[in-house]
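Section 5.1 Outputs to date
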Amino acid sequence: MKTIRNFSIIAHIDHGKSTLSDRLIQETKVVSERDFKDQILDSMDIERERGITIKSQTVCLPYTAKDGKTYSLNLIDTPGHVDFSYEVSRALASCEGAFLLVDASQGVEAQTLANLYLALEHNLEIIPVINKIDLPSADIEWVKGQIEEDLGLDPETVILTSAKEGIGIGDILEGAVTRLPPPVGDPDAPLKALIFDSHYDAYRGTVVHIRVFDGKVKPGDTIIFMHNNATYKVEEVGVFKIIREPRKGLSAGEVGYIIAGIKTVSDTRCGDTVTLKNNPCEKPKSGFKEAKPVVFSSIYPVASDGYPELAIAMEKLKLNDASLIYEKDSSVALGFGFRCGFLGLLHLEVVQERLEREYDLSLIITAPSVRYEVGLTDGTLLMIDNPAMYPDPGSISYTKEPFIKAAIIVPDRYMGAVMTLCMDRRGMSRNYQYLNNNRLEMIFELPLAEVVYDFYDRLKSVTQGYGSFDYELIDYRMTDLVKVDILINGDKVDALSQLVHRDRSVERARIACDKLQEEIPRQMFKIAIQGAIGAKIISRKTISAFRKDVTAKCYGGDISRKRKLLEKQKKGKKRMKMVGQVMIPQSAFLSVLKSDD
């Protein structure tokens, strides 16, 4: 155990975690130069295209240190985006130390702080690293000052690197050996291993990623999961060296995988403890927080006969993404689909893109909403995330909505713009402090419903890309909630209903009506598009009808002749309107979701 080190790399989004992992893998020659490719730990196409990490990945690096000993370094690469912070907490639960990466030109940002606090919660040894020192805009002394003031870490212990140019990579490997503690544990005690991730292999079933804290595990052992008491026989154990490398066994302190013929990923709960059936450990290791969905949306196939394919695709996707939660749903306008819970808007986008790309589906996604708490007059408490389930307003005694605490770090020249943006979103300023002479940390309390709409994009544009944002849910608070229905010729279109705050209802209804007026094609009769709360109409747009000039043949003569023809036409249009059906094109549903700016 003295020669094992378990560590992860944590940082704000885009500070160079994946590139640094690439260099460490190259330096330790885990992969031959011929097989090497950039972002080697990002296995999904969508990760490579967007340049973001979504799933945390593990790799075991063999390294011969200056003292002549060979060490095995287990690196766990983590995502940086706020939506995937649950992946970061899982990775940290299986480490003893972390390298905290800071960009030499950007400095400390919101996720840097959030990830630092996560690492401190797990009592990890933290080594600060300044990356991208080769950039012309790099200001190393300024960043060292921030590391001391904002993070409270010693600037003398900073390692300087440029992952792109390969500068300082040896220092990081030496730092891992000399400055991070080796794991502690008893190889002779009963097995106690923590599941921190799992993925699905079509030929072998679920591959469970574990960190062994006590004891040993080898092929042939019968293991038991302490959460659901499921027992399995171990077929193979090993470590990750980009590809799986089987071993004779794993013992205390090591990170690796188990294959035991497990059919579905949902049987393996992240944070669960694995032990031996005939010699179990006393109590499970305390797992980490359950990932709770915060944004809800319905997914429907474009063609109604595409439902079976969507159902199979959702099941397969769930195997690889344990945080996706879904249940069956149906809509009068769109047929059968699924109501899904996501960790944030980026998670929703990633799921949508993976369904479309990996399973070749075309989908419609309804407006994202959050989960509201609704108290009825008879004392019942409901949790509602779907406008279709909203009860009759007469039976409601109160409604509550989720609030978040948002930490926004910006250069002080954007303070006014950020204030305006947050106040527009019903936010309350709680605190702000200068981190150094021109950078501010602003703390706001905001309703989550206002944030999921397009807050992150707006923040990036008002701060010209310099704003960074991190949030956590705090509690539920009283709100004045209304359900806005969209009527087309008097018929409700359930898929377009939204739950919004009363102050925002008229604006949202007006936007939806404007968008639909542009998208719905003209008919031979007038089409009324209305936004309504209950029976009260709050906005309206009319698509005018095509008209044929029926008076063209009348030369001169009496006016009553013309009037008779116009009246006849009007009757025909009225009759057509009674039987005419308005088909709403697919593009109309999508246009309502997009905001103009």
